[in-house]
Write a structure and sequence with these properties.
The strands form three sheets. The chain has a four-stranded antiparallel β-sheet, covered by helices on one side. A two-stranded parallel ribbon has the order 1-6. A two-stranded antiparallel sheet has the order 3-4. The longest helix has about 70 residues. It starts with a helix and ends in a 7-residue tail after the last helix. It is about 70% helix and about 15% strand. It is an alpha+beta fold and about 450 residues long. It contains eleven helices and eight strands. A hairpin with a 6-residue loop joins strand 3 and strand 4. Helix 5 runs antiparallel to helix 11, helix 7 packs across helix 10 and helix 10 packs antiparallel against helix 11. It is elongated, with a radius of gyration of 39 Å.
Length: about 450
């Protein structure tokens, strides 16, 4: 019985292993380009924008078909008692009537103030606008991927810094313990070393947690399943020393002509202008052509069903002219609201341009600041490293207290993190400026 139980669980383990996704068996290392391309194909926000575009295309097709005649059929069966008018012969009779009526009808709008044509033009503009919304969604996801990718690289290097500090502090604890046993240092020096080692271990745990959180954020942008392992490639040339930062006005002028949110906002004005044209069409007459064919049967005639359907066969063609006289202020309200919509869209365009300029100026200022901070942080890091090495040698010679060594190590650690932060911020904001000029993100 025990053998059977073991075999059962062994079989189930092999079965479940076979059901695991292939992504668990193969661990892929993602480059920034891989992440961006995958997100553009799979991100839900982009798919939602594409569905909006598909809906606008359906509306455009429907508005084109609205110019064609419609066609409908009807059939009715009626029973009546007492005095009534026969629906087929129109005779007044006082008896039970059994009647059948069949009809095929059509109508087409010949003229309605050019509203059909303007609706088609408006829907065509809406398709173009939704295409721009898709591009805007792709741009937003691309920038989010870039930011998450660089944040992961920063956190990954922060882990390395924390690991090195922990190893160094653990060695210092060993030295402090040996000196404490030898009686060359006090207990407080030893506890300071223990405290620093514990702090560095906490920093390492915190750095790993931050890294894991950013991995989750990137996986969500990529729409990856939870069980998929994600590892990203480091940058080949991450430094931007000596790179010339373009002028913010130059970047803005190029962005206005290339960013889809600006073009989409400009189309909103054109769309609202078509709303005005459609509203004005409500004041004009509507001319429609209608036609129908039909036949029927009534029980008060002695002729059989087939013969009656032949005898009662009829055709009708008509023209209807509808002239609006009083529409309870609906047409005037539509025109007034359309004019308001045009003015609102113009103000919205100015707002979108202001927001874009604010983003560009912020990126430009941060790029300038990050470039200067990177240079200063690098010098500070190198100086702090030399000071820390000197402090370690003094500590080994018993010429420096544990507290002073801890201070030196912390100074070096902070200098390393400041340099990493400035470096990756510089990369981010320089890429943003390139992106706003219409260039692809490639690191």
């Amino acid at each position: 019985m025990k053998i059977q139980t073991i075999l059962f669980f062994l079989f189930m383990g092999l079965f479940l292993k076979a059901q695991e996704p292939d992504s668990l068996a193969t661990k892929k290392v993602w480059s920034l380009e891989d992440c961006i391309n995958y997100a553009l194909e799979n991100n839900i926000t982009i798919k939602q924008a594409e569905l909006g575009m598909n809906s606008s295309e359906v509306n455009l097709t429907q508005s084109k078909y609205a110019k064609l005649p419609d066609l409908s059929s009807s059939a009715s069966q009626n029973f009546s008692w007492g005095s009534s008018i026969d629906p087929i012969t129109s005779d007044f009779v006082s008896e039970q009537i059994n009647s059948t009526n069949l009809q095929l009808s059509t109508s087409v709008t010949l003229y309605n103030g050019n509203q059909l044509n303007n609706t088609i033009k408006q829907n065509r503009l809406l398709v173009e606008q939704n295409e721009l919304y898709v591009e805007e969604a792709k741009n937003n996801i691309t920038l989010s991927i870039l930011e998450a990718y660089l944040q992961i690289l920063y956190n990954k290097e922060s882990i390395e810094v924390a690991e090195n500090n922990l190893v160094a502090s653990e060695k210092e604890v060993e030295r402090a313990k040996a000196r404490l046993d030898a009686g060359t240092i006090s207990m407080i020096d030893y506890t300071d070393a223990l405290s620093q080692a514990a702090t560095n271990k906490t920093n390492l745990i915190s750095a790993k947690n931050s890294y894991a959180q950013q991995i989750i954020a990137l996986k969500q942008l990529l729409e990856l399943d939870p069980w998929v392992e994600l590892e990203i490639e480091p940058l080949e040339n991450p430094l931007l020393e000596g790179k010339v930062i373009p002028g913010k006005i130059e970047v803005f002028q190029q962005a206005v002509g290339k960013m889809p949110e600006i073009q989409a906002s400009e189309l909103t004005t054109s769309i609202n202008e078509k709303d005005l044209d459609i509203a004005k069409g409500g004041f004009l007459p509507t001319l429609s052509l209608t036609g129908s064919i039909g036949s029927g049967y009534t029980s008060i005639n002695d002729i059989n069903f087939a013969d009656q359907m032949d005898v009662n066969f009829n055709q009708r063609v008509g023209v209807t002219l509808t002239v609006p006289i009083f529409s309870q202020y609906r047409n005037k309200a539509s025109v007034a609201n359309a004019k308001i919509g045009i003015e609102q869209s113009k103000l919205e365009l100015q707002t979108v341009k202001k927001q874009l300029y604010q983003k560009i100026e912020t990126a430009w200022q941060n790029a300038q600041s990050a470039q200067e901070q990177t240079e200063a942080a690098k010098i500070a890091m190198e100086a702090a490293y030399e000071s820390y090495k000197l402090a370690q040698r003094k500590y080994e010679l018993n010429a420096l207290s544990t507290t002073d060594l801890v201070i030196s190590q912390n100074t070096y650690t902070n200098a390393q993190l400041n340099y990493l932060q400035a470096k990756y911020l510089g990369i981010l904001y320089n890429e943003l400026l390139d992106f706003y000029q219409g260039n692809e993100i490639k690191l």
